[in-house]
Amino acid sequence: MSLVTGILRRALRLPAPRTPRVAVDRDVAVPMPDGAVLRHDLYRPSGVHRGPVVLVRSPYGRAGWAGAVFGRLVAERGLQVVVQSVRGTADSQGELSPFDEAEDGAATVAWLLDQPWCDGRLGTLGPSYLGLTQWALAPAAGRSLRVMGTLVTASSFRDQTYAGGAFSLDNALSWTSMMRTMAASPLARATRLLRGRRTLTAALDALPLRSGDRRATGGEVDWYQHWLEESAPDSAYWARRDYTGGVAEVARADVAVTMLGGWQDIFLPWQLADHAALRAAGARPRLVVGPWVHTSGPGMAAGLREALAAFERAFDGTHGSGGVAAATTEEAPVAVTLSGDGGTRHLTDWPPPSASQRTWYLRADKSLSVQPPPDRTAVGVRWPGTLVDYDPADPTPAVGGPILTGKSGPRDQAGLEARPDVAVFTSDVLSEDLVALGPVTATVHLRAATEHLDVFVRVCDVDPRGRSVNVTDGLVRLAPGAPAAAPDGTRAATVELWPTGHRFAAGHRLRLQVSGGAHPRYARHPGTGDPLGEATTLVRQPREVLHDAAHPTAVTLAVEPRH
């Protein structure tokens, strides 16, 4: 056992290693069908000469955290581990084409199953992109694949890239910049790291969007350009990178799947869609969700413990994890830890079958009430709404929330809520705890001169001191005819917020923000129908948010029954 893994083991709260001595075969070459050679490191526990293999496919290199956490730490539990660099990364040949991982994954699986030290049983492990590679290879692995340890990931990244129909600019450009920095020479890498977030921040404000990669990295990046050009839901580009169809195959192959998610993780809605697909196909995956952002330390620790326990069960205990199974949470199919110091719930399924729906309505006095707005309007008389004036030249900023890098997660909303382009509605003080547990949706009735606009909705928790902190949010992009206008010219926008598990404590209040965007998490809406990467003209988009009896703007939360 190395000093590094000893420190990591204690930090991750893992039991003592079963096999502290691990040998590593470096830079092992595996030829792909097109002649490109991909390289991996093979971690061999002492005394293990043949057995199951855990495959980890990563675009982030094999040294550092990928090798230490998902290579050596797992091998110390008695399992052989292959940590492979995907095509076009580290010293694996070819060109990186993000998310296009099915063919190389299948070829790697075939090579592994042909090795004398592999007994025909496979597992997979990893977060984020390393999770997508698992879904990509799963159909080809068939019943050789016994277990998958998936953390903060989904079977397709397309919908995250265009969340709500807008472009997830910060995530896309931050990842592009990071990958280009990793691939640069040591001198260029050091220069880019010194410039840090400043260069990226300037690039996030670039117009048109297609110039953002050049400003962030110094050159055009093919995949970033593809993402701007291939935004249509029926794009062949994304169809090739979509592995949702294989989720049911995993269930039919009886693969044990663990899923680790975070309430403010960028992939949560689509990870939960994968969970639902597994359940619909008859599988019983293990789902753990907690108050974590993408790849946060506590979340990764929980996910690794769950995966190692699943490996022990799947491989019959013959190459066990030294008692990891006993260190995991109670073996309910679903375990969720609430934000807001709400404790942990062990559930039979997700969404919780016992949850009920509760709706809060916006009122003209800027309150938020469980009572619908009263019908005070005479026939033909218009009840005024709340004006929200969105100016893309000074876009409403993103403050916290599910973001890949930077200041993500729960954040103080004081500065944002003081802006004139953010409408705020607040409930009375809660007389008892309220636990939101499940899906969250909002319906926003509005009247606007332009048909091109975004609607952003956020639920916050306001403590007795008046501090407002974001809990969940979502955005939807409107286009002409979508949604269609009512006879009176108004439109009703349905916004799917991130699912949540949060305790609003007694003495706190609920708050709803309504605005026209969250830049640069979502690329600003220019107010025109110009192509995504081309727009340079910016048009103000004032809109009236309605909250009368005929247009009841509201948010609906799934809530836990009162005990």
UniProtKB/TrEMBL annotation:
<dbReference type="InterPro" id="IPR013736">
    <property type="entry name" value="Xaa-Pro_dipept_C"/>
</dbReference>
<protein>
    <submittedName>
        <fullName>CocE/NonD family hydrolase</fullName>
    </submittedName>
</protein>
<feature type="domain" description="Xaa-Pro dipeptidyl-peptidase C-terminal">
    <location>
        <begin position="322"/>
        <end position="556"/>
    </location>
</feature>
<dbReference type="InterPro" id="IPR000383">
    <property type="entry name" value="Xaa-Pro-like_dom"/>
</dbReference>
<dbReference type="InterPro" id="IPR005674">
    <property type="entry name" value="CocE/Ser_esterase"/>
</dbReference>
<dbReference type="Pfam" id="PF08530">
    <property type="entry name" value="PepX_C"/>
</dbReference>
<dbReference type="InterPro" id="IPR050585">
    <property type="entry name" value="Xaa-Pro_dipeptidyl-ppase/CocE"/>
</dbReference>
<dbReference type="Pfam" id="PF02129">
    <property type="entry name" value="Peptidase_S15"/>
</dbReference>
<keyword id="KW-0378">Hydrolase</keyword>
<dbReference type="GO" id="GO:0016787">
    <property type="term" value="F:hydrolase activity"/>
</dbReference>
<dbReference type="InterPro" id="IPR008979">
    <property type="entry name" value="Galactose-bd-like_sf"/>
</dbReference>
<dbReference type="InterPro" id="IPR029058">
    <property type="entry name" value="AB_hydrolase_fold"/>
</dbReference>
